[in-house]
Amino acid sequence: MTDPMKATCHCGAVELRVTLSDGLATAGRCDCSYCRRRGAANVSAPRSGLEVVRGADKLTLYQFGTMTAKHYFCSVCGNYMYHQRRSDPNEYGVNMGALEGVNPADHEPIPWNDGVNHPSDL
Does residue 122 surpass a pLDDT of 60? Predict the structure, then answer.
């Protein structure tokens, strides 16, 4: 595990404290019908590694398909913040671009995961 990091939405209404599983080494993107439209790179954190410091009342939940994954957004600016994973509900994917001091472009190429052929759908 790494040291806690700060993550904020674009408008600042939501702030997270995140302890990543393996730092930025877990960076990835998903090509499922939803994530490929969003395009955001995310990094892994255990469920115990994410705390909403500010703005819990500003977070909006979006679910689709199997309704297993839970995607959370700022209801003010629309910024994707994190999601509880379908592949492992005990883990979060956190928007890499929301982490303070991190620019995903500095970490390219970021690999894509096959969400189109997800094992839960087979």
Answer: no
